[in-house]
Design goal:
The structure is a homodimer. By secondary structure, the first copy, chain A, is of the alpha/beta class. The first copy, chain A, folds into 2 domains: about 10-50 and about 315-450, Aspartate Aminotransferase, domain 1, CATH 3.90.1150.10; about 65-305, Aspartate Aminotransferase, domain 2. Chain A is built from 14 helices and 13 strands. Chain A has an 8-stranded mixed β-sheet, with helices on both faces. Chain A has a 3-stranded antiparallel β-sheet with strand order 10-11-13, covered by helices on one side. In chain A, strands 1-12 form a two-stranded parallel sheet. In chain A, strand 7, helix 8 and strand 8 (about 250-255) form a beta-alpha-beta unit. In chain A, helix 11 packs across helix 13 and helix 12 crosses helix 13. The interface between A and B is large, with 54 and 54 residues.
Chain lengths: ~450, ~450
């Protein structure tokens, strides 16, 4: 870096006071700009949605390949040709794929409802009849996974999310003896928010590990399977085959969608699982469905043509969003590099940058940003019940704003991070708490914080 | 009628034997034609679906009236302009309407899941924690309502469906003292399959009746609200206002969809209820949804423009399907009039003709028809668990085949009805069971069978 800086915690009291004054001044300038920017949600931008606008004039036919009228009722499992495209993309058999409505989240919700009310293929009884149901939640993770479980009264046990997947010794220990541990959330490829990719080795361990619950289920939410930010495209582990080979064919249920491929609100979602799980899912689905929107299925089939069409389309997305991720990194580096008050991920795919700030300052950073007109996801959002025990994690979502706005917003965020850290250090010194090297700075914690190892600076 | 016939039960043994021989011969001729016709499901025909094909090139915009990009996430309650159209059509406020996906059945299913897992606005506890949950099911009724309840383990108590709605003394008696009675299915307008329309008086009684369960709920499935077959268009009772006026604002939840207006598989569904119920429903929906397909919402708004657009579109449907219902009536009249072995409804809307044959012969009629290449809905389908205690009810769905096929199929059905009745009477006489006027013929039962009073012959 052109401007090597001293770690903030190493500054003398006077220098720290000077730094704080500088940041206050920078923040006042930031506030005076009257910004109104939003980095809260992982939403595609208009430019990304535009890429799929041929959908608005499709389908050109009203019949599927088999001659079935897609406008009418029926076809619970979804259009065969769409399931084939996703089977190829997800390395599964078409018969293992169910194509549904516009939301994989809805398919996850339905799956858990089925477990609660009816029990799964390998369940001794419906989950609603269990005294306690618990899920393993790698953190940081996807807030909607957690709020869904909370709404069902399912307890959440956290484990650290590493760069190659969840902390496996912790996971293996939890599932081994406790039959109330019924599931785990995994976002295997470019995880929300860390960008981690589950390795083949971790996937194999998840597949093979002994579990006290016969119906322990891996909710494999492959939302970003094809959402690469570099030419080095991560390949998702083949969890269905791994589990089948380990004698646990019904353990994983995989989800994906085109929400971040075509239209976020009007795409198609898929589920993939063992034949037995597919039959189970469709059996319950049949009680409350007249079939998916097959017109939208055909619309997508005509738009993509084949799996390669999806991959080519994702490269066009990459062109739009990769510069935004670069802008995030550049702004954070410019504003914070060397201060040792923050570390952030450098994702090669997905929709988020994971920012860890000085312990105990994440909420303050979000509040400062808000006062300056920059909306960030609430601190702690990536933890169950929104509670980050160290109050240091912030999820950045740079896809929705245009590039210039990302630059402006992130420069502002860097100012807020620096100001909050300086405030904290000054206050700590005044109260005699901590000092240099007190263990609360990320640099001192890298070794004990595998969640961001190798992915941060 | 040009060919007045003697009631079959009044024939001498010889004449009855002659009639049976005639019908066997007619049936053999029918079989020899090698037909392949289907009257099983209430599906729109291709010609009806074609009426909505402008949808394939819509929407022309990607923004709603408020400027929101319909392609992106969000807008859980659905597009405001679509909710306004349905609010007008259903005589409710837009704020009482939620617009969802492609299936009102799915919204009903979700509602019951919410009651089971969380309890409703007025529930003392989730239904899954009740020892027994029971629903009142007017019969004949919609098979999917019943199979849904069966899948949830909800018990079904039947009452007769009259021409003005369910047998209210029976309903009032059931709900008064039994807190396990939690709901009732009502298809208020052109009921499936009887074509009955719930009167204002019956609706007012449903709204006002005291119920032992505080959370007793009317599932008001207004699937055929706008599906008139004559110029005399039935107006649905305003169940939301009636219930609110009676101090039971949260009692009714109304459902409708465009499945039989635009595309059966790719339409839009709506739910309407009190503000408290809407808030409750959306609160749970938010846990498993990223918003409905707003592109399809806008597509429908642009297609209809307004409520009058929907009404005008339904008149085009009427032109296509009213002749098919006339053909059903004509074929049954030609084949069966005067024999007193069948009575059938003369619906002024909806999708079905309700055919009651000689007690104990419905299954035989369906089997005979199948052997002759005419698929009918299984006998008993309109009863919980598919069990019609009198084995006499057959649901006819004439909309899907083209007009000529309806004529051919229904002439064949008349033959099957006559053959099965003759077989039964001959067998009964041979075994000494019953005879003329034994109470098993519809003519003798009209008085005790309010379900078809005034609607059959």
């Amino acid at each position: 870096m052109t401007n090597p800086r001293t770690p903030l915690a190493s500054l003398s009291d006077d220098d720290l006071a000077g730094f704080l004054a500088e940041q206050r001044s920078a923040y006042a300038a930031l506030q005076s700009r009257g910004l109104k920017l939003d980095l809260t949600r992982g939403k595609p931008s208009s430019a990304q949605l535009d890429l799929a606008d041929d959908l608005l004039r499709l389908p050109s036919s009203t019949k599927d390949r088999a001659g079935v009228d897609v406008r009418n009722y029926g076809g619970l499992e979804g259009l065969a040709e769409l399931r084939e495209i996703f089977a190829e993309l997800l390395s599964v058999e078409p018969s293992q794929v169910v194509a549904g409505g516009n939301s994989s989240l809805s398919m996850m919700y339905s799956t858990i409802v089925d477990f609660l009310l009816f029990g799964g293929v390998d369940s001794p009884r419906p989950w609603s009849q269990e005294e306690t149901v618990r899920f393993i939640c790698p953190v940081p993770g996807y807030d909607r996974h957690f709020s869904m479980l909370a709404s069902f009264g399912i307890e959440m046990v956290t484990v650290d999310m590493h760069q190659d997947g969840p902390d496996m010794p912790a996971v293996e220990s939890l599932v081994k003896d406790d039959p109330s541990i019924k599931g785990i959330w995994i976002v295997p490829t470019y995880a929300n928010p860390s960008g981690a990719v589950v390795s083949q080795e971790v996937a194999a361990r998840l597949a093979a590990m002994p579990t006290a619950a016969a119906d322990f289920t891996i909710f494999w939410d492959n939302a970003y399977a094809f959402h690469h930010l570099t030419q080095e495209e991560a390949k998702s582990a083949d969890i269905l085959s791994l589990c089948a080979a380990s004698g646990h064919p019904n353990r994983p249920i995989m989800y994906a969608s085109t929400s971040k491929i075509t239209y976020a609100g009007a795409g198609v979602a898929v589920l993939a699982a063992s034949q037995a799980n597919v039959k189970w899912y469709l059996g319950h689905l049949a009680m409350g469905s007249i079939g998916p929107d097959k017109v939208n299925h055909l619309r997508h089939v005509e738009f993509f043509r084949d799996a390669e069409g999806v991959r080519a389309h994702m490269r066009r997305h990459r062109e739009v969003i990769a510069p935004k991720f670069a802008a995030v990194d550049e702004a954070l580096t410019t504003g914070l590099d060397g201060l040792e008050i923050a570390q952030w991920s450098h994702p090669t795919g997905g929709y988020f940058v994971n920012l860890d700030v000085l312990d105990g300052t994440a909420s303050r950073v979000v509040a400062l940003a808000k006062e300056a007109g920059i909306a960030l996801t609430p601190a702690g959002a990536s933890y169950p019940h929104g509670r980050d025990p160290r109050d240091r994690n912030i999820r950045l979502a740079p896809t929705f704003p245009v590039l210039d706005e990302v630059r402006t917003a992130m420069a502002g965020v860097a100012t807020c991070v620096a100001l909050a850290a300086a405030e904290k250090l000054v206050a700590d010194r005044a109260s005699g708490v901590g000092a240099q090297g007190d263990g609360s700075t990320p640099s001192a914690q890298d070794a004990s914080n595998p969640a961001t190892e190798g992915a941060s600076r």
